[in-house]
Amino acid sequence: MTVLAFHSPKGGAGNTLVTAAIARRAAIRGRAVSAYDLTRQDSLKLLFGLLPHQNLVGANGQAMVVRGVRLNGNYVTKGERDAAIERIKATPPDELALVDIASADWDGWEQIRRFADLSICVIEPNPIGLASLTRLGEQLPVTEREDIAIVLNKLDDRRKLSRHCHRFMKQLFVNQFVGSIRRDESANEAIARFESLVDYAPNSVIITDVDILIDSIEQRLAITGLVRDPQKLRAVNSAEHQTV
Ligand SMILES: Nc1ncnc2c1ncn2[C@@H]1O[C@H](COP(=O)(O)OP(=O)(O)O)[C@@H](O)[C@H]1O
Ligand SMILES: [Mg+2]
């Protein structure tokens, strides 16, 4: 099993978009994927083309599989949420579980990151985004937290500040930086049309960037020895061998 926790200290950075895009692309690549929306907003399903009022539980009482991803969410009570966290812990060995945690939900993040393989923090390339990273470190500075990976989202290379933030973050967070995703309005257009981004805009730069990000996360997990699936580890190692 591989559990990735998505949490950002600043709301609106694209935590949900990145969770949904990775889930969908990993499913297309043949992985068994479950996505959990632990946020009160419950917007993850909108990125799979569902409507706000749509229920995620099918007639058989099981979480629905939407576009190749088992979607879980709409937790109202603490009991429902705790049960979901227990299910995440019991993710089957060959499955990838992605967990979308709201920015204000420090408790949820604390709970999940204890057993997650990696905590991914999505940040926008602007000063407030950068400043928000100082909230993650606790006793250790973020630069020394091996369990945290940083993704820059909504990158716009036409903007000087965006470019500079990108360069600065890559230099500062050498061990944490796992990738960047460019800004593309098709992210919102897809939601407005109740379609998933992959279906609405298959050529979006977001998808290109997310594919690179997935490779980078997989490599990072193997490098830090966190992959619990030996077959996958072997595959990553032999791929590295080939590129040498
Ligand atoms: N790469 C991107 N390009 C353009 N818009 C984006 C991108 N990533 C996210 N967005 C938009 O930014 C807004 C916030 O994204 P969301 O994933 O809901 O953030 P969070 O979950 O961190 O609060 C949404 O309107 C979303 O469509
Ligand atoms: Mg969100």
Q: Alpha-carbon distance between the termini? A: 28 Å
By CATH, the architecture is named 3-Layer(aba) Sandwich
Range of strand content: 15-25%
Q: How does the helix and strand content classify structurally?
A: alpha/beta
Bound molecules: adenosine-5'-diphosphate, magnesium ion
CATH topology: Rossmann fold
For the record, the CATH class is Alpha Beta
Radius of gyration: 17 Å
Helix segment count? Answer: 9
CATH superfamily: P-loop containing nucleotide triphosphate hydrolases
- Helix content percent band: 25-40%
- Which overall shape is indicated by the principal axes computed on the Cα atoms? globular
Description:
The protein is α/β, with parallel strands linked by helices. The protein has one domain: P-loop containing nucleotide triphosphate hydrolases (Rossmann fold, 3-Layer(aba) Sandwich). Helices cover 40% and strands 18% of the residues. The chain has helices spanning 15-28, 78-89, 106-113, 127-132, 160-172, 186-192, 197-200, 205-223, 230-243; strands at residues 2-7, 32-37, 65-66, 69-72, 95-101, 118-123, 148-155, 177-182. An eight-stranded mixed beta sheet has the order 3-4-2-5-1-6-7-8, sandwiched between helices. α1 (15-28) crosses α8 (205-223). The radius of gyration is 17 Å and the shape is globular. 39% of the residues are buried. Adenosine-5'-diphosphate binds next to α1, β7 and α6.
